[in-house]
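Blinded run. Sample ID left blank on purpose so nobody reads anything into the name before looking at the predicted structure. Input follows.
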Amino acid sequence: VQGTGGSSAVSKCSAAARGYIQDRFLRLLVGRRRRRAPLVHRGYYIRARAVGHCVQDFLLKTQSRPRTQIVSLGAGFDSLYFRLKDIGLLHHTVVYEVDFPNVACQKATLIKRTKELSALVGDTGGEGLGVTTFSGEDYKLLGVDLSELSELERALEEAGLDNEIPTLFIAEVVLTYMENSRSDALIQWAAEHFSQACFLLYEQMHPEDPFGRVMQQHFSQMNSALNSLARYPDGEAQQMRFFEKGWTECNVMDMNEFFTCCIPEDEQQRMQALEPFDEYEEWHLKCSHYFVLTASKGMEPSWTPLLSNMTVPHRDGPIRTAGSITAAACPMHSEVSGLRRYGHHSVLLKPNVILTTGGFGEEDGHHCRMRNFHVLIKRAGCWKAGYVKKENPDKRWDGRLYHTVSCLSNSLALVVGGRTSPSSAGLGMLWLKFPETWNASEPDDITVELVSLQPAAEPAALRWRHSTTEVIFKGEKYLFLYGGRSAIEPVLGDWCFLHTQELSCAVIPVEGPVPESRHSHSACSWKGGVLIAGGLGAAEQPLGSVFFLRELERGFQWQTVETHPPLSPRYSHTAHVHDGKLLLVGGVWIHSSSVPGVTVIDLITGLCLDYTINVEHLEWPLMLHNHSSVFLPNEKELLLIGGGGNCFSFGTHLNPEPVLLSLSNILASH
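Blinded prediction complete.
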């Protein structure tokens, strides 16, 4: 548990060094320096903002009081006291920090040795007494195990804590490491013993969905299990916990809500522009698995509990579902390697033959951008897996992610866009040529030739997270290239009609209201036009709009497809059209209470029905974002390939094998 405190201090320090948080004291308190990934920086940024917001709110609302106090439980190497003192917010507030005795001793030694820190505290008596490892006029550092409540109470009393003045308790990812009976007792003790108190809790939630399972497993492997989750799995359960333990007001918000409601737009944009970033799915999932809670009791009416004056977003209740679809592991002839990946693309080359290219995943036991082309062939109800041979092995596939592959004939496919790293420019176009007459019964029989293109329509192709969809205009085939993002533009709203013969951009007029810019949306061919659904918009907010680009005599026209109930905004899903129904599969949304399953939109009536995916037959968490899916019309089945991602600092999760969803029930019932 102490290790988690040390590693989170290193992460905060790395975030401060990159400008995410303003904190010049962290580097003085943290010995080790490590540069963390942008996703981790964002995670610690939102944590620091949430805690800082609530602490400053407390100090602001109680500034007319002669004395107040803050008790930081499990403070570790946090710099809160020094930051508040430095900006002059502690005129009449004493800060008490509590942690394990050895942690408190290390911190006390650091403060004494560091001029800049000891000068701020104004050391008043050298050595502390008993469990007090350091004592200044407005700062007391105590070495006590929080799970020993009577010892904690005695230590705080001896250090001068006053239970009659406004007191803020802070527990930032601390209580969850204690046994529930002990953390409950601590919450109750704070409510019972202090006449005017606030409690600030920042912690994990939603242990049972795929991301939650990966998160729990990580902490268990680190030998620091998250004990609160089983009894208090979500915000409502935590709220009830505080009411039952004697607190009278209580508000809770997950970090997606906090980011949207409590961080000004210009600050959101400043943070989003700090580093090249392309892990939106895991950022939103991380934020839906952490909450900030504030509770209060005995405070004056004018002192509303933290967050209550915020416009908390209108929370739609749980998603109403029309039923569930059972996921089953795909019957395979052979052990399948090479399909543990995300950000790849799968395409049906011809009936029962599926080609998967690119993405990031596991090859030869290590994680890398995938260089091998993978093929699945169905024979006698079973799938066989193998690798495609490249005819010109000197032409290396560049291991791109978030590209598209469009089949133009049995022997020809076009790769458009994609990226290597999010800071490098998008990649152009490539032909994949297969033998004219191939009759593959064995995966290893298939060969492919890679052909780079002259930079004809190149500029339009330098993007990723876009869509490329076949449309027909005046009897001719075009590829409609839409949306996505580039190294310069975080979101694109433009399009281009690629003529499939000469691959040049054709000028075809388009009328109607232009959809807002988006990437990670879905696009399907329908009636000669294209259906665009969902995506991530300009402010990194998921979109719930559906558009149809419809063919007219003189060009195309954008039309809005009204859905009822309205489609829940989502992105990073896949989509298919079958028999007048648009099927949306998986993806990420900001409802933290559940994960997207399959949504069926009737394109005639606009009726929108959500189905959950029943995963009881799978032995591993099924993460349905950055996956690919292929619809098999004869069987009315969906084959889901790959998917997953880098789950914050909890490790990378890759769905280990393809999964089949049988849709015959839900497609028949419509």
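Unblinding after everyone has recorded impressions. The first helix runs from residue 2 to 17.
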